[in-house]
Design a protein that fits this description.
- The structure is a single chain.
- This protein is of the alpha+beta class.
- The protein has a domain at 3-128: lpxc deacetylase, domain 1 (Ribosomal Protein S5, domain 2), CATH 3.30.230.20.
- The chain is built from 6 helices and 18 strands.
- Helix 1 (77-85) packs across helix 2 (108-117), helix 1 (77-85) crosses helix 5 (231-244) and helix 5 runs parallel beside helix 6.
- It is globular and about 55 Å long.
- Bound molecules: zinc ion (ZN).
- Zinc ion is lined by residues 77-78, 190, 235, 239.
Amino acid sequence: MQRQRTLKDKISCAGIGLHSGKKVKLTLKPADVDSGIIFLRTDLSERPKIHATAANVTATLRATTLEENGAKVFTIEHLMSALNVCGIDNCEIELDAEEPPVLNGNSIDFFKMILAAGVVKQDKAREIIRIEKIYRVDGDEGKRFIMALPYDGFRVSFVSVNPHPLIGIQYGDFEITEKIYEKEIAPARTIAYEKEISALRSMGLGLGGTLENVIVYNDSGWLNKLNYPDELVRHKILDVIGDLRLAGIFNCHIVAAASGHALNTQLAKEIFREQGTGNRD
Ligand SMILES: [Zn+2]
């Protein structure tokens, strides 16, 4: 029997949101068995709860958005990624804005926060999701796909495809353990093309992006130092791990090519529809 897990203590951090550019304080708190991962918007008078489940995904443009009880939170995938790898079943996440802090643009700070708060086993079995067949979602007329295969463990194999000659095709294949995640995946940041930035900002996206939290490239190269030569594909793997947590915690081998939040969350929805337990509150 696998027991459910939560945090031992609460822990907070503050910063600005990647897309909104708004200041925000985030607090991770222990939660009761069977409560799941719940966002709580403390800046709104009703303090609405938003359950982090695939059924509540309403948008996936450049980030994953959840909506419930008339409130939303977005760019939740990096935090969800760290919660997934740390095996956290139950956690209340207080936010006083709609977007968690971007911090260093990856999940390493969230991962370290969870470990610093401590992880405790709870007095109830985890509901087991079993991947006993191949779940597969295709997109963009066959140019992208993601699938979850039966596997005894958690592994992600990913091909990222980028038209820029300096980036091109990158391939990553990792067994996701806490140790490997901390060293190989959690420090990887997302990328942005310099030419796109003003268009993104006019759409209200990337307002909190800086050279500290996003790799920016132009026609001749990078404007900042890379953490890994293949940082993009590692970040894509970080995102997949976060998006899939919306279906629950489970063993599988993810194989994907050119997948993003739209396909990742469609796969999570499919698994959740068949095996998820709904909002558990
Ligand atoms: Zn990301």
